[in-house]
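Please review this pair:
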Amino acid sequence: MKIKKGTISIDAPARGAGSIKRRKESKKLYVDFYYFGQRITRSTELDDTPANERRVRDFLDRIHQRIEDGTFRFADAFPGASEQEKAHFTMLEGREYRPEPHQVLFGEYVKEWMETIFPSFSSPTKRNDYREAIETKILPHFKNVSFYQITSTTVFKFADSLLCTRGENKGKPLSTARKMNILMPFRAIWNDACDHYRWVLKSPFDNLKKRLPKTEKKEHVVIRFDEWLRFLDHLPSFYQPIAEFMILTGMIPSEMGGLKKEDIDRDYINVKCSFVLGQDKQTLKTAFRKRQIFITKALRQRLDVILNRSESPYVFTMEDGARFNSSRFCKVWKKAVDAAGITYVTSYSARHSFAAWSLLVGINPLRLVKLMGHASKQMVYEVYGNYVEGLEEDGERIFDYLGRDFVIPQKSKSPIPFGDRTGDSFERFALTT
């Protein structure tokens, strides 16, 4: 007879063979006995009848006999107990606890995983993303499913069923990239369980991406100069210098949120940390994101406005004085885009526009790599290198907007202003992309 885990009995337990207990608020029978000096109380899920009482007594007698013989196995007698309990008593029995996949429920193992493995992730962003995916998507679907039942088919059906839960795409299928991100903690839990229990199982995640429908990757729009000015006209005046700071530096909101006044010296902005989901990070997205940005005249003009109005140790704040919040800022940004009636662009488009504008006015791609905080110029060409129809028409005004001291390196012996250049730098770039 299999006994399920229950609540503690209200009666004092008997030694030896144990006892059958009852609770006033329950019509079920309970077993109550000691094992390795530890009290064990379980609900039998059997109704309180004379016949069931005899069955439970026989069960307790067998337990007592096997304990006396040294043949009792807690995990076999109580398969519904938690994995921690089964592992604990198996260790006391002097054996190694190695349940089979059909004996371990995904939800039970996740409880242990969240207590032991999950805290080891150093990235706050990763912990938040994993927790959200596990608690809102994965657990509700697989909580009471054993690892044996998790197959490539069940995982595919799960991934295929994932839908957007908010925003303008609510109710529509998630992109394949988003589905794979949700499956990342699922895969991590599966791999850790196999390692923990020494299971040799075929991964249900193999080749999954190939089975999911391909979705077009959204490219960030590069902002044309006229549209940028129109957007600024519709952006609240408090946020105008912040938006301009973004397009003049290529910095992203999380880096701006982590920027302190002490990180700015006379001529440079030192990007050292970021602020993500309410947590300061001493490290950036990659080691290459730690960089220095020269403060040009154009950048100094906007930066002075921002610094002079901030009483916070941080450079950027919201209009109400609160610390800069990327989610709130994005809502302000979207309202301005809608009001301006321009091509829809996100705040991240400022970074892509900074790169495209820099290449347009002849910035060396290797220099741009450092300004953007990338590892190689491959990212510059692959991510920011798409030709933008008509952007070259904006070249003169972009040159003036970014400033001569940005375009022309300070140590250059032969500075050539944008209007006098042959233009071969941009044409050569366009031909290679």
Q: What stands out?
A: Residues 32 and 41 are 5 Å apart (CA to CA). Strands lie at 4-5, 19-22, 28-35, 38-47, 268-271, 274-276, 279-281, 291-294. The chain has a mean pLDDT of 83.
